[in-house]
Amino acid sequence: MIQVRFKLERPDFTLELDTKLPALGVTALFGPSGSGKTTLLRCIAGLERASGSLHVNGEVWQDDKAFVPVHQRPLGYVFQEASLFPHLSVRANLEYGYKRIKPAERRVQLVQVVEWLGLSHLIERDDVAGLSGGERQRVAIGRALLTSPRILLMDEPLSALDSRSRQEILPYLERLHRELSIPVIYVSHALDEVARLADHLVLLEKGRVIASGELHETLARLDLPFAHFDDAGVVIDAVVAEQDETYRLTRVDFSGGSLWVGYVNQPTGSRVRARVLARDVSIAKIMPQSTSITNILAARIVEIRDEASDKVLVKMMAGDSPVLLSRITRRSRDLLGLAADMEVFAQVKSVALM
Amino acid sequence: MGVGAWSKNAVQTMDPNDLQSVWLTFKLAGITTILLLLIATPLAWWLATSRKWYKGIVSALVALPLVMPPTVLGFYLLLLMGPHGAVGALTRALHLGVLPFTFTGLVIGSVLFSMPFAVQPIQNAFEAIGRRPLEVAATLRAGAWDRFTSVALPLARPGFLTAIILAFAHTVGEFGVVLMLGGNIPGETRVLSVAIYNHVEAMEYAPAHWLAGGMVLFSFVVLLLLYTLNPTGRQK
Lengths: 354, 236
What we know:
The structure holds 2 protein chains of 2 kinds.
Chain A: E1 2-9, E2 14-21, E3 26-30, H1 37-45, E4 51-56, E5 59-62, E6 75-78, H2 90-98, H3 110-116, H4 133-145, E7 151-155, H5 163-179, E8 184-188, H6 191-197, E9 200-205, E10 208-214, H7 215-219, E11 233-244, E12 249-254, E13 257-262, E14 271-277, E15 281-284, E16 295-306, E17 311-317, E18 323-329, H8 330-336, E19 343-348, E20 352-353
Parallel strand pairs in A: 3-8, 3-9, 6-7, 7-8
Antiparallel strand pairs in A: 1-2, 1-4, 4-5, 9-10, 11-12, 11-14, 12-13, 14-20, 15-19, 16-17, 16-19, 17-18
Helix pairs in contact in A: 2-4, 4-5
Chain B: H1 3-13, H2 16-49, H3 55-67, H4 70-81, H5 86-93, H6 103-129, H7 132-139, H8 144-155, H9 157-172, H10 176-181, H11 192-201, H12 205-229, H13 231-235
């Protein structure tokens, strides 16, 4: 558990928060630019000094009396730009922090990091400037991991990359998430990244925490801005259940039912994460017949909220917990007479596996 | 005429005093450069990182020799270090004598006079590094001194190279401060520029040519070194 109580006055904004972040899985700090998410991360690292206190897993990193300097905090930090040391080789960059921790504390080894991040062809390179953006950021992540951090802080590690490099690096991040038990605090302003990587979501606005909670629930909260983005949607954690080789489709099961998605080359039982956008979900009152839409889930309406003069957002439960969002016109709502607690059928036009 | 004959000719033309002044000049420049590195490095670091209000005053003081005639600096140092000056009184109380017209006095004058040529390139190099690499090093467990030696110093290397070359060359070429503060004592304070002046005064143009021509060549080689060893330093 990370307990944060910070106050920092700046000419242009004030950071003021008192919150708890889980020291488990990936916690996304999300918010528009200027919301203070990077500043909060820097305060946690000790790169910025706010007044207040910070306890990480019971250890005091900062309180009224103490301020542990950055280099004595067992953290890893990945900056927006890779910021590799230009005077050092790739190997020397990777080993920079590794050499500076006690041998007994080295739980992560160079060979592991090279394997995890696919760095074997880069390790002997001397010219870090000659690496691509994605390669540089992978080296930077490896460099941070090699300090065997007890928490990994990542400040928009993908935002300085082009979309190809982003796609290249995301699988590595997911893999770290799965295979390392290091908690990650991940600053981002890209909803797709958050939906893909996070377990816990903290929304910041003007230096304050607006919402903090489990990813699935928080993304579907109609009182928060997430649900009203153009690419608003929900995240469903599912398991590969069946492969249809004839039609090249894969069935994934989750607690609210199952979905057919484009072929996933993964064995049955693998965990996958799917994202269903609100604009891809339509609603029928009776079970649709003769439709081209494959994925139809029985659902119950939980809440309807007006979104614009012509649109409403409908929040539904499929089964017990997972939630679907559907963006429909206000007219459709009135024509169908949709209201809370009604049993309906959600037609899912497309599912993006992540 | 081969190189051997050429240098033999030079030795014949220059008297032993001239060779002594060449040696003295390089000794002065060498000692001055080493002292300047020791003084300018922390000073440049402070100037590059500090946000104190009096930073501007310190910067201006360091840069003062750039705009002042060397004779002005020499004049005030002479007064300050002379028997009636504050520094002179102190050195006398410590039984060190007075510093004007000694080699030590020249070193002090040269250090002050060449200070901006050492401080400014190093300061610029430190500033060009920015905060980020040092922050990265801190998150990788490097303490303050470790960050300075493992990140700041190597990244500022072009600045140090420029500082060394400029401080050395500028000291070799100095005249006004020497004349005011050191005078013309062979083996003690008679450096190259003063020796040339003496030769010209005495209408001995041949040895003056050898010394002056050597200076031109030396200066050219130094600048050539500076620009070829340090091309990126100039792009930044």
